[in-house]
Amino acid sequence: MSGHSKWATIKHKKAATDAKRGKAFTRIIKEISIAARSGGDPDGNPRLRSAIIAAKAASMPSDNIKKAIMRGTGELEGGQIEEVMFEGYGPGGAAVLVNVATDNRNRTVSELRHAFSKNGGNMGAEGSVAWMFERKSQIFVAGGKITEDQLMDIVLDAGADDLRDEGGRWEILSAPEAHYAVLKALEAKGIHGEDASIAMVPKNTVMLEGKQAAAMLRLSEALEEHEDVQNVYSNFDIDEKEMEALAQ
Question: Mind listing the pLDDT tens digit for each residue in 165-196?
C-alpha cells in the first residue's frame, strides 16, 4: 500500500470526529465555493459536481450547498478565498503537498511553515516536489460488498486505470476527466464511494520507520488540523504493523 493511501485510511477513520466538529462541512463548503467560480451549473462544471457529491455523502443540507454555490458565483457576499498549493519536505525527505483555501495567505504561510519546522520538515519552493505527484481521480469503496473481479469490470469499463486493495477498502484510480463517469458507473450498481476526489497521487514512495515515521505522522496530522488546509498529500510509506502501532 502506498503511504498516501495509508494516511487517507487514517483520515477516513477520523472523519466522524471531523464531522462532529463541523470541520468536514467547512472544507466541503470552501471547495464548493471555489469550484462554483467556474460556473454554478454542476452539469457543466465537473469540479463542482464532484464537490456536491462529496457534500451529499457527508449529509450536508441542500440549503448549505446552495448558499456555498451562490457565494462562489457572487450571488451572495462572502470573503474572498484564495486557493494555493504549498510544497515541502517532511522527515526522511518525504515530499508533501498542502492544498489550502485561505482569506489570508501571509498568515497561512507563516503557520504552515511553523508546523513543518516543529515536526522535522521544511517548506519548499514552488515546483520543488509537485513533479513527484500526478493528478488522479481517487475513489475509495468499502470492501466486502463486492468482489474484486466484479468491481474491476465496472470501473475499467467506465474508464478507470487501476484498482488497489487498501486494507478493507478498494482504491480506484483514474484520469481526472474520467472521475464523474466512474462515479456514475458505481452508483448505477448501487455502490457509493466513501471518499471521492481529484487527488495528487505520488508516483513513487519513500519508506520511513522509527522516529522519522512517527514525526511524519505528527506533521501530517498537524497540517490536516489547520483550519485553512483542504488536503494533505505525501509520498511516505510505512510498514503496515508499524503504522498500526503509531496510529493508536
Answer: 877 788 999 999 999 899 889 989 988 877 78
- Which candidate, 184, 151, 156, places its Cα nearest to that of 166? 151
Question: What's the burial of 67, exposed, middle or buried (CB within 10 Å: 0-12/13-18/19+)?
Answer: middle
Query: Which stretches of 14-61 are DSSP H helices?
Result: 15-21, 23-36, 46-57
Q: Which amino acid is at 92?
A: G
Closest by alpha carbon to 40, among 10, 67, 1, 18? Answer: 67
Is the pTM higher than 0.70? The answer reads yes
- Cα R_g (the chain), whole angstroms: 18
Domains, the chain = 3-73 (1.10.10.200), 82-131+204-243 (3.30.70.980), 132-202 (3.30.70.980)
